[in-house]
Design brief:
Blueprint (H helix, E strand, L loop, with lengths): L14 H20 L3 E2 L5 E3 H8 L4 H6 L2 E2 L8 E3 L4 H10 L9 E10 L11 E10 L4 H18 L4 E7 L3 H15 L8 H9 L10 H8 L10 H16 L5 E2 L11 E9 L7 E7 L3 H4 L8 E7 H10 L13 E5 L5 H13 L4 E3 L6 H10 L4 E5 L1 H6 L2 E5 L5 E4 L1 H8 L4 H8 L1
Helix pairs in contact: 1-5, 5-9
The protein binds adenosine monophosphate (AMP).
Main location: cytoplasm
Family: Belongs to the class-II aminoacyl-tRNA synthetase family.
Catalytic activity: tRNA(His) + L-histidine + ATP = L-histidyl-tRNA(His) + AMP + diphosphate + H(+)
C-alpha cells in the first residue's frame, strides 16, 4: 500500500458511491427549481474577517475550527469556508443583487471545512446543501424555506426525521434573556463542566444545548427564552407554525433549541435523524436579519436560510435502504470485437453511436471475445453489438439484447434508429 493517504477527516467518493450523490443532487436541483431558488457558487476561501465578523468571535467555529492561512507573509489572512451563509451574503452585497430585485432566493451545494476532531458524522471536509432567502424574512418566507428543505427529504424518501422549532426573539429579547440566564447560572458555575463554564462567559445560550445530563438537569430550572419574547416575536412564530400546519409538516417546539452562530434571530429550526448516533443533527437554520448590516450594509436586510449536511443525509438514506436502487447509468451498447485487428471499426461504430447520444462502450485492452462479453454483462449493458469480418463486409451487425438474448441483424443506421429513442439526447429533450 502506498504511504500516501487522504488527510484525516476527509474522504474520497468512488464511482460506486457517486450515483447516490448524483441522485441526491438531482433531487435538490429539482426541488429548488420548484420553489424558484437559483443556484449560487462562491469561492472556497474568503478573507478571515468575514467569518469572524459574521459567525461571531465567541463561537466554536471561529474560536478553534477554522483552517486559516496567510498566503503572503504580510498579506491578509484567508480561511477555508466553514459555512456558506457568510460567503453568500458577502457575494449578495458585493454583486449588488439588491438593486435587481428586492427578494433573492439562492441555494447551493458546497464543500466546507472545519478543524473538528474527526469522528462518525463529523469530518474536516464535508458537504452541505442549503438555501438563503434574502430580502424578506416574513413568516411566509420562513415557512417557504423550511418547506423546501422538508420536500427534499420527502422526495428522497427519508422518514423518521424530527423538525424542532424555536423562536430566539429579536436582538433585544435575546440580550435580556442572556442576562437572566447568566444571573441564574453564575451562582451554579461550580457545578458546570469545563466546556459550559467557558461558554458562560462567551456564549451562554450554547449551554442550553449541552448533551451532558448533569448540565441538562441544571438547565431544566433555568429561565425560559419564551418568557422573554416580545409580542411581535410570538406572533411571527405562531404564524410560522400555522404555515407548517398548512403544509402538513409535523414539528415539535423545543425551547432549548439555539443555533451555534451569533447572527440568528427569531425563528430557529433544526432537523434530527433517529438513524444518526451522537451527531444526530442533519440540518438546521433560521433567520439572520442583522447579518447584512454586520457586514457593512447601511441597513438590515432580512434573510432566512438553512443548511443540511449531505454526508449525514446519505448515512440516513443508506440506513433506510433508500440507496439500494440508485445505480449509475449503464451502457446501452457494448461493441464486441471478434478480433483486435478490427479495432478501428469499433472506434468508428462507437463514435457514430455516441454522436447519436447512445451510451456505448468498447474494449480498450485487446481482450478476448469471452472477456468482452463478461465485461458487458458485468456493466449491465443493454445490448452487445458484434463486429467481425463478415459483419464489416456486409455492413450488417448482430445486436443482442443481453436480457432476453434475442438477436437482430441490422445496419448501424438501423441500430441507431432503434436505440435513439432511449438515448441520452432524446431523454434530455423530453425532460425539457
Ligand atoms: P451547522 O452549520 O453547524 O448548523 O451544520 C449544518 C449541518 O451540516 C449539520 O446539521 C450537519 O448535518 C452538517 N455538519 C456540520 N458540521 C459537520 C462536520 N464536521 N462533518 C459532517 N457534517 C457536518
Amino acid at each position: 500500500m502506498s504511504q500516501y493517504r487522504a488527510v484525516k477527516g476527509t474522504r474520497d467518493i468512488f464511482p460506486g458511491e457517486i450515483s447516490s450523490w448524483n441522485h441526491i443532487e438531482k433531487v435538490i436541483h429539482r426541488v429548488a427549481g420548484l420553489y424558484g431558488f437559483h443556484e449560487i457558487r462562491t469561492p472556497v476561501f474568503e478573507y478571515t474577517e468575514l467569518f469572524q465578523r459574521s459567525i461571531g468571535a465567541t463561537t466554536d467555529i471561529v474560536g478553534k475550527e477554522m483552517f486559516t492561512f496567510r498566503p503572503e507573509e504580510k498579506g491578509r489572512s484567508i480561511t477555508l469556508r466553514p459555512e456558506m451563509t457568510a460567503g453568500v451574503m458577502r457575494a449578495f452585497i458585493q454583486g449588488n443583487l439588491a438593486a435587481t430585485s428586492p427578494v433573492h432566493k439562492l441555494y447551493y451545494i458546497a464543500e466546507l471545512f472545519r478543524k473538528e476532531r474527526p469522528q462518525a458524522g463529523r469530518q474536516r471536509q464535508f458537504s452541505q446543501f442549503g438555501a438563503e432567502l434574502i430580502g424578506v424574512s416574513s413568516p411566509e418566507a420562513v415557512a417557504e424555506v423550511i418547506g423546501m428543505m422538508m420536500q427534499v427529504f420527502a422526495d428522497l424518501g427519508v422518514t423518521g426525521l424530527r423538525l424542532r422549532m424555536n423562536s430566539l426573539g429579536d436582538v433585544k429579547d435575546r440580550m435580556h434573556y442572556i442576562k437572566a440566564l447568566r444571573e441564574y447560572l453564575e451562582p451554579l458555575s461550580a457545578l458546570l463542566d469545563e466546556h459550559s463554564r467557558e461558554r458562560l462567559d462567551k456564549n451562554p445560550l450554547r449551554i442550553l444545548d449541552s448533551k451532558n445530563p448533569e448540565i441538562q438537569a441544571i438547565i431544566a430550572d433555568a429561565p425560559r427564552l419564551h418568557d422573554f419574547l416580545g409580542a411581535s416575536a410570538i406572533d411571527d412564530f405562531e404564524k410560522v407554525l400555522h404555515y407548517l400546519d398548512e403544509k402538513d409538516l409535523s414539528y415539535v417546539i423545543d425551547p432549548l433549541l439555539v443555533r451555534g452562530l451569533d447572527y440568528y434571530c427569531h425563528t430557529a429550526f433544526e432537523v434530527t435523524s433517529s438513524e444518526l448516533g451522537a451527531q444526530d443533527a442533519i440540518g438546521g437554520g433560521g433567520q439572520y436579519d442583522g447579518l447584512a448590516k454586520q457586514l457593512g450594509c447601511k441597513s438590515d436586510i432580512p434573510a432566512v436560510g438553512f443548511a443540511v449536511g449531505l454526508e449525514r443525509l446519505l448515512i440516513t438514506m443508506e440506513k433506510q435502504g433508500l440507496l439500494a436502487h440508485v445505480t449509475s447509468e449503464r451502457p446501452q451498447v457494448y461493441v464486441v470485437l471478434q478480433s483486435h485487428e478490427l479495432v478501428a471499426h469499433a472506434v468508428g461504430i462507437c463514435d457514430a453511436l455516441r454522436k447519436s447520444g447512445i451510451r456505448s462502450i468498447m474494449d480498450l485492452a485487446g481482450r478476448s471475445m469471452k472477456a468482452q462479453m463478461r465485461e458487458a454483462n458485468k456493466m449491465s449493458a443493454a445490448y452487445a453489438l458484434f463486429v467481425g469480418q463478415d459483419e464489416i463486409q456486409n455492413q450488417v451487425f448482430g445486436l443482442k439484447n443481453l436480457v432476453t438474448s434475442e438477436q437482430d441483424f441490422l445496419s448501424i443506421q438501423q441500430i441507431i434508429e432503434r436505440l435513439e429513442p432511449f438515448s441520452e439526447s432524446s431523454q434530455k429533450t423530453s425532460d425539457e
